[in-house]
Amino acid sequence: MTYSPAAVQAPQDSVVDDLYWRDEYSQITEDDAFLRNIVETSDLPALLVALAAVTRDFSLLRPNLRPPQPPADTIGQPHGGMSQEAQMEARELAFQALRRVRDEQLTRVETLDEDQATSILEWITNAASPEYHPFLMHDMALAEGKSGKPRWNYEDISAGREFSVAIIGSGVSGMAAAYRFGQANIPYTVFEKGNAVGGTWWKNTYPGVRLDTPNYAYSFSFAQRDDWPQQFSEGPEIHAYTCEVARRGGIEENIQFGTEVTSAAYDEATGLWTVQMIVDGEQVSRRFNAVVSAVGQLDRPKFPDVPGRTDFAGIHMHSAEWDNDVDVTGKRVAVIGTGASAYQIVPAVVDQVESLTVFQRSSPWMLPTNGYYDDMPDSVKWLVEHLPHYGQWMRFWQYWLGVEGRQHTMNVEDGWNTPGSVSAINERVRQELTRLLAVQYQDRPDLLAKVTPDYIVGGKRMLRDNGVWAESLKKPQTTLVTSGMERMTENGIIDADGVFHELDMIIYATGFHASEFLEPLQITGRNGRDLHEYWGGDAKAFAGITVPNFPNLFILTGPNTGHVVNGSLFTMMESAIEYTLEAFRHLLEENLKALDLKQEVLDAFVRDLDAANSKKAWGHPSVNTWYKNKFGRVSQIWPYPVLDYWKITRRVNLDDYNKLS
Ligand code: NAP
């Protein structure tokens, strides 16, 4: 259970840092007509760079064919906005190159040197600032030596000093930390209160659970699975991926399952954290040099504060505590909430229930996504199998398109005073999405009035819409209640209009206690300081990671590291892990007990951050979301470009910290 270096299966000496790396691909045997069809039905930017990398013919990446990528206010244009003319030329080039892959039996691809990787980057990003290059190469599996893999080893720098780390939680951030620490041979143990890895993907088993971000880009940079069955895969598929990564990465054996960490206290004299945990009902205590919180923040279900809530005697469960033994068939069911979880549950259960009553407090903005439930196209499946590294290039292309995504639609324009929007672009998006809603609900003006959101686009994360939500609401068995809930009774809910809804089952899709970072862990820092008292409900951490007076405590997916319309959860958490590893390196090389963030550094960081968030749609005073805490401060969202987060996590500025020795 405790980490031993031999457990790491990843190739330590290899330049490749990808647990899904394949050396050999299937040989192409199909005829020209088949290949023609492949290029006709494929996304061209990913296809061309994959072909250039395999054939080593970088002249395929002609400057006139660069995908221009006009900013996508709502739906991005296919092929990165390439003109019809450019698409035709690119298809012909791709066809010829694909024939070459077949005729020369090219079944493997070598890594790229710096110049080759750069020429691909310049082409695929349409010559975006070179500042992006190192950032993007981090996620380019073929770029030699550019990944987040640590380039140092514990044994080489520790001078025999004992050092160990506790990671709390084995969700995706805890797993990524474990993998990277393992690569540096840092001794660690992961403590997981459940009995499986995967965190949110293990816990959330409600009907309809699936990804709502494109699947290729939703994966670890060091585990670039290439054969995803769908663009937005279902929950069990993602959970299976996390289990597979834990196995391939040698993480699993270093996880102590069934162990709930209850507290951690820092001891000034020794510089060690005493971590208390419950194992098999017994209180156990262990000491570590550093504590890494990977507890996530969408873990503790939140229930609405409705009079009589506990009086309801029927079946009731939160979306994150789904009981798969419960059959909804023929039941009178209520779903409370219309956020991301409800949005997946409602279409999944609507045809099984006798009646469905949806209690909506605010209606979500929706992003049209026709292929939301679709299987991966056959052309993609074939390319993944036959064109070496195509899947990784798909991932890379999707990743790049999401880096800044629709951020530009969310900026508050100085002097803009049209109610319901924050800028001309934001207003344009609102009008476009409103128009699409009007089309969807043209036969139901009663519903249209209820489902048209009354808050700024981008105030909250948009939900993927392939029409199933509208279909579900229009069904005769469905009632959409927008008046609110007056009270709950033993057998139903009385709405704010006084109408009684008799129910067999209530599904709470009402979100989580997201602002209460690290609750209910009791964390005691220097001089007996309690973390939650220090925060007072207003969690703040430098880069979301470190907090003054809590030396060697590192938080993953911490305050202000989330995104609304762009970015990548994986980049944010992997960057935070790389920063944490840099801190470990300093501790070991300089034989320090601990690093303690200076208060003034955090204050300055938060001052700038708050100012930046106030200039975004989600920071607007009229918007009320879980991104804001009880003080109205945005404590969830990173307001800057993702690149900025990556930059500030490249190195630990020791001047920001008090060095404890
Ligand atoms: P959520 O987005 O916070 O939605 C909660 C819903 O419950 C909202 O509609 C909210 O209304 C409503 N609500 C809360 N309290 C209520 C009350 N007292 N009365 C009536 N309605 C109430 O929670 P979630 O749907 O569980 O999603 C949480 C986050 O998890 C998402 O934002 C997303 O980041 C993530 N998620 C991701 C996926 C995925 O596919 N990858 C799926 C599910 C969740 P208001 O809007 O008015 O607050």
From TrEMBL:
InterPro entries: FAD-bind_Monooxygenase_sf, FAD/NAD-bd_sf, Flavin_mOase, Flavin_mOase-like
UniProt keyword annotation of Oxidoreductase present: yes
Region annotation (Disordered) ranges: 62-81
Top-level division of the source organism's lineage: Bacteria
Gene3D superfamilies tied to this protein: FAD/NAD(P)-binding domain
Keyword set, alphabetical order: FAD, Flavoprotein, Oxidoreductase
Family annotation (PANTHER family): FAD_NAD(P)-BINDING DOMAIN-CONTAINING PROTEIN-RELATED, L-ORNITHINE N(5)-MONOOXYGENASE-RELATED
Family as reported in the entry's similarity comment: Belongs to the FAD-binding monooxygenase family.
Name listed for the protein in its UniProt record: NAD(P)/FAD-dependent oxidoreductase
Biological source species: Arthrobacter gengyunqii
